[in-house]
């Protein structure tokens, strides 16, 4: 017998997973991602991806700071997810000490960051962007890390972004994160906003990958 009545409303986390399934397949099938993961690119391509992620996470983590004080949203903010300092560490390794002058941010990454800045103080929109990135980093990100080690000779240095030392069991943490999403007490319109924004977040990620594919070819 199911634990839930058959007509129970699906949880937000289930709606997000189901509602972005096709977007996820499309994102992981982007040529830049496929080539990077297959070892057909080089360390510079990986470094360029890390640089684009810097501006996206700067915007996301500014939004986290704003949402932290939200009566409902504060439960979604976890210090152990914070990525900006580790991205900076990775960039210092990958580009050297002058990394701030060396990196070049693509318009697609600026547009993604601008969208987060535009809507990120609204809880449904924040939830969508945080879900898309952090649950992804804790999931596929771990596969990315292994492939970068294997193909591009990285051995931890340069890959701090994919390491969550304070989260030893990502499955347990992801379940907690999903419970927090499900406990946000959003109304119907807000749930619709989360789902639409999560799909947009995947599209913004794909646009960054498409732009990177123009620069890095096998
Ligand atoms: C290298 C490409 C990728 C691979 C191999 C990959 C792989 C995976 C896998 C295996 C899971 C399931 C983990 C689980 O159920 O515990 C997952 C979940 C997820 N991925 Fe990816 N992924 C990739 C790219 C992306 C990208 C580009 C995004 C978005 C920016 C993303 C966002 C997510 C999210 C949000 C989840 C959680 C789904 C849920 O349970 O609600 N992934 N990924």
From TrEMBL:
Gene3D superfamilies: Heme oxygenase-like. Pfam families: Heme_oxygenase (PF01126). The keyword Metal-binding applies. InterPro entries: Haem_Oase (IPR002051), Haem_Oase-like (IPR016053), Haem_Oase-like_multi-hlx (IPR016084). It comes from the Bacteria. Keywords: Heme, Iron, Metal-binding. This is Biliverdin-producing heme oxygenase.
């Amino acid at each position: 017998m199911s634990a839930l009545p058959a007509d129970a409303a699906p949880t937000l986390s289930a709606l997000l997973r189901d509602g972005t399934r096709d977007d996820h397949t499309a994102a992981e099938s982007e040529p830049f991602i496929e080539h990077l993961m297959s070892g057909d690119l080089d360390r510079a391509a990986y470094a360029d991806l890390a640089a684009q992620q810097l501006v996206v996470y700067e915007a996301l983590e500014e939004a986290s700071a704003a949402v932290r004080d939200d009566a409902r949203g504060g439960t979604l903010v976890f210090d152990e997810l914070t990525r900006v300092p580790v991205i900076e560490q990775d960039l210092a390794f990958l580009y050297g000490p002058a990394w701030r002058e060396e990196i070049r941010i693509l318009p697609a990454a600026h547009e993604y960051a601008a969208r987060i800045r535009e809507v990120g103080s609204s809880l449904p929109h924040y939830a969508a962007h945080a879900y898309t990135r952090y649950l992804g980093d804790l999931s596929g990100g771990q596969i990315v890390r292994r492939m970068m080690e294997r193909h591009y000779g990285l051995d931890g240095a340069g890959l701090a972004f994919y390491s969550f030392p304070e989260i030893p069991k990502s499955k347990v943490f992801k379940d907690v994160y999903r419970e927090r999403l499900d406990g946000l007490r959003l109304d119907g319109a807000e749930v619709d906003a989360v789902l639409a924004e999560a799909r947009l977040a995947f599209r913004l990620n794909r646009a960054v990958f498409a732009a990177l594919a123009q620069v890095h070819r096998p």
